[in-house]
């Protein structure tokens, strides 16, 4: 910027034009920095909102393709947060609006991600069951429930039904909200009578011989 100021003096450039040039260079540098940050996954929707509050024009600073990628990353983070929560208004309306992307296209992206991640979450949960990592297992089942909230699923099938029962026991042991436990029961294809039996088992012992001290939340 010092060079520009010196140039302004040497050629007699009016201050207004000089300021426009400086603003243009600053904007270009900021846009490049933002695009790099988004491309490297270092910018979140929270920071995008902060930038907009500071009057930064996201639409011109960050390309549409990168904004779409940021949306996809944000949704992936929601589906892997381990909370089991999915806010339709936030995901389908607020985030697309903040990123200035097409809401209908964004919704299709959410549905595609939910369908692909739902079964993967079950596979991961079973793997964690076999590893006796019950804390991570519960998080994976919550991810499954979040995907199901986005795109309601039919009951899932598994080649070892006993493992589905074990998943249910472990999840019930974590004291989840009743609606989450009920929905998981449906997704795992467990009948009401079987679920009642499994719920009573959770108070006595955990599956796979894991001791109480290993199951800490």
Automatic annotation (TrEMBL):
Report the record's Gene Ontology biological process terms.
protein import into chloroplast stroma
Q: Which GO terms describe its cellular component?
A: TOC-TIC supercomplex I
Q: Which domain of life is it from?
A: Eukaryota
**What PANTHER family does its record include?**
PROTEIN TIC110, CHLOROPLASTIC
Q: What is this protein called?
A: Protein TIC110, chloroplastic-like
Query: What organism, scientifically named, is this protein from?
Result: Nicotiana sylvestris
């Amino acid at each position: 910027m010092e060079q520009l100021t010196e140039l302004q003096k040497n050629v007699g450039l009016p201050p207004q034009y000089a300021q426009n040039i400086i603003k243009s260079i600053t904007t270009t540098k900021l846009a490049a920095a933002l695009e790099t940050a988004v491309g490297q996954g270092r910018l979140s929707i929270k920071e995008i909102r902060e930038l907009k509050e500071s009057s930064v024009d996201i639409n011109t600073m960050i390309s549409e393709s990168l904004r779409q990628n940021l949306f996809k990353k944000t949704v992936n983070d929601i589906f892997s947060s381990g909370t089991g929560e999915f806010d339709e208004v936030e995901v389908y309306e607020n985030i697309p609006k903040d990123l200035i992307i097409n809401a209908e296209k964004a919704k299709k992206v959410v549905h595609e991600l939910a369908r692909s991640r739902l079964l993967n979450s079950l596979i991961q949960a079973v793997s964690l069951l076999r590893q006796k990592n019950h804390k991570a297992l519960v998080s994976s089942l919550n991810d499954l429930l979040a995907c199901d909230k986005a795109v309601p699923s039919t009951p899932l099938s598994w080649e070892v039904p006993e493992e589905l029962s074990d998943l249910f026991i472990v999840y019930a042991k974590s004291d989840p909200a009743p609606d989450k436990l009920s929905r998981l029961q449906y997704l795992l294809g467990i009948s009401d009578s079987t679920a009642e039996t499994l719920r009573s088992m959770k108070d006595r012992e955990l599956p796979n011989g894991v001791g109480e001290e290993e199951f800490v939340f």
